[in-house]
Amino acid sequence: MARITAGVGCSHVPAMGVAMDTGNTQDDYWKPCFAGFEKTREWMKNAKADVVFLVYNDHCTAFDASCIPTFALGCAAEFRPADEGWGPRPVPVVKNHQTMASHVAQSLILDEFDITIMNEMEVDHGLTVPLSVMFGEHGVDDEWPVQVIPLCVNVVQFPPPTGNRCYNLGKAIRRAVESFDEDLNVVIFGTGGMSHQLQYKRAGLINKEWDTDFLNRLTSDPVGLSKMPHVEYLREAGSEGVEMVMWHIMRGALDDDVTEVHRHYHIPASNTAVGHIILENNKD
Amino acid sequence: MGIKKDYEDIPGTYVFDADAGRRGYQLNQFCISLRLQKNRDAFNADEEAYLDQYSMTAEQRQAVLDRDWNGMLALGGNIYYTSKLAANDGINFQGLAGIMTGMGQEKYRKMMLDGGRSPDGNRYQSEWDEKDKD
Q1: Annotated catalytic, A125?
Q2: Tens digits of residue pLDDT in A131-157
Q3: For chain B, which ranges sit under pLDDT 50?
Q4: Of these four, A246, B13, B62, B134, which has the most CB atoms within 10 Å of its CB?
C-alpha cells in the first residue's frame, strides 16, 4: 500500500522563485535564506519520495473570482506553470500520479470531504516555489524528480477553512493514501506563510515569536494548534499569514508523534518571514 | 443577525471577506485579466476603452486610473488581484508595499531587512488611535 512517511512545511514566497530563476541565490540578500534548504535537498534525495502531495494556494492566477473552491484537488495528467503577470516560471511541467489522485478524490468525498475535482489547472508560484526550493534548479526541458498531487486551498477570500477542518482533512488524506494499493512512498507538503502582510498600512508585519511558537507546536501540540481561531492569524501573523492553516493539513496526515529533523527560519524574503520544517513519522 | 467580524479592529488591514469579494468583483476580474500579455497590451494601448468591458463603479474605475492602490483595497479589491495591475506597471510586491504604507520603497525595504514591522503596537486599532493623539 501507499504510505505517507514525512511532512514538510515550507513558505512559497514568489521572490524566492525569481531569485532561483535569475541565478541570484548566492547574493548577500538571498544566501542566508537559501542556505537553510541545503540540508533539505539532501534529505529529499534520501527520502526517495515517489509522490509529493502538495498543499498550496493559488494567488488569483488559475482561479479568478468567478469560482472559489475551498479545496480543489488536481486530477489532470499534468499542470503547466502559469503566467502570473510577468511570464510563466521557467520550470518543468508538473506531472501528476493521476490514478492515485482520482483514488484520493473518491476516497475523500466518501469520507465526507466534498472537494472540487480539477481536470484542467495551471499552477502558480504557490506550488512551483516549494518544488524549486526542495529539489533545486530544474529548467523547462527538465523533469521534476517526483510526481505531484496538488491540493489547492482557498486562503485568499476570507474565511479560509478552519485549522481544525484542515487538520481533519489531513487525516482523511492519510486514509485515502493508505487505501491505495500501489506501494508508494508519499511525502506531504504544507506550504505558505509564515507571518506576512502584503497590503495596506500594516504591510510588512513579521512576528518571529509567533512563528517560532507555531513551529514548536507542530510537534508538541498539533491538535491544540489546529484550534487556533482565524483572527489570531490575522492579528498576530498578518492578513496573508492566515495561509498557515494549510500546514495543518500536512500535520494531520502524519502520526501523532513525529520527530522534527530540520528547521529553518529566515527574515526577510521580500515581505515575508520564511519558515521551513521537516517532520518524520516515528518509525516503530 | 450577521456573522460577527472579530477582525475589524485590526489596524491598517483590509480583510478580503465575502462582502469585500462581492463589492470588488468587477474590479478584481479586471485586474486578473491582466495576467495575459494580450490583455496587458490592449489595456496599455487604451486604458479607458479596456475598462469599459468591466461594469465597476465610478469610484473603482477612478481608483484604477489613478493607481490609488489603497483606494482599490477599500473598494473591495484584493492585493493578489491589484498586484496584477502593479506588475503591469512594473511594480513588484515590495514596491507596492512601499507605496501602500506611505514609507517609500527604500525605507520599507530597510524595515524588512531589520526584521519587519513588529506586532507590538500594531494589533488593535485603539493602539493606532493612541499614537495619533500623541
Answers
A1: yes
A2: 999 999 999 999 999 999 999 999 999
A3: none
A4: A246
Helix (H/G/I), strand (E/B), else coil: B94? helix
What is the C-alpha to C-alpha distance for residues B72 and B97, in angstroms, rounded to an integer?
A: 14
Name the residue facing B10 among A198, A204, A234 (closest C-beta).
A234
Contact A176, A249 (CB under 8 A): no
Give the number of residues written for chain A: 284
Residue linked to cell 529566515 = A266
CA distance A23 to A132: 12
- SS3 of residue A43 by DSSP: helix
Q: Compute the nearest-CA separation of A185 from chain B (Å).
A: 35
Task: Find the Cα–Cα–Cα–Cα dihedral B116, A128, A222, A104, rounded to 10°.
Answer: 160
Beta bridge partners of A79: A94
Neighbours of A90 (CB within 10 A): 16
User: Facing residues of A189 across strands?
Assistant: A8, A54
State residue B2's pLDDT score: 76
pLDDT tens-place string over residues A35-75: 999 999 999 999 999 999 999 999 999 999 999 999 999 99
Say yes or no for a CB contact (<8 Å) between A199 and B108. no
What pLDDT score does B3 carry? 80
Cell 495596506 maps to which residue? A200
Phi, psi for A75 (deg, rounded to 5): -115, 5
Tell me the three cell numbers of residue B75: 473598494
Tens digits of per-residue pLDDT, A172-204? 999 999 999 999 999 999 999 999 999 999 999
- Quick check: A84 and B97 CB within 8 A? no
Q: Is the pLDDT of residue A284 over 60?
A: no
AA identity, residue A54: L
CB atoms within 10 A of CB B130: 11
- For the stretch A89-147, pLDDT in tens is 999 999 999 999 999 999 999 999 999 999 999 999 999 999 999 999 999 999 999 99
Chain A residues inside the 8 Å CB shell of B121: none
Report the pLDDT value the prediction gives residue B1, as an integer from 0 to 100: 64
| B78: chain A residues, CB-CB within 8 Å | 60, 156-157
Q: Do A158 and A201 touch, CB atoms closer than 8 A?
A: no
